[in-house]
Amino acid sequence: MRLNLRYLLVPLLFLAFNFSSHADDAVILEQAWISEAPPTVKVMAAYLTIVNSSDKDMTLLNVDSQQFERVEIHRSIVENDTVSMQKQNQLIIAAGNRLELKPGDFHLMLFNPKTRLQRGDQHSLRFYFADGSVFETNAVVKRKNLQDHSHHHH
Amino acid sequence: MPGRIRVKPFRYNGEMTEKQRQNQILTPVLIAIAVIAAAGGFYFSLKLEQQQLQQAAIPGLFWPNPKQLTQFETVDQDGGQFGLEQLRGKWSFLFFGYTNCPDICPITLSVLANAYPQLKQVSEQTQLVFVSVDPERDESQLLNQYVKYFHPDMIGLGGSQQQIQAMTRQLGIVYFINNEADQENYLVDHSASIFLIDPLGRLVGKIAPPHEANAISLQFKQIKEFIDAT
Question: What are the extents of the domains in chain B?
Answer without folding.
Answer: 1-57, 67-229
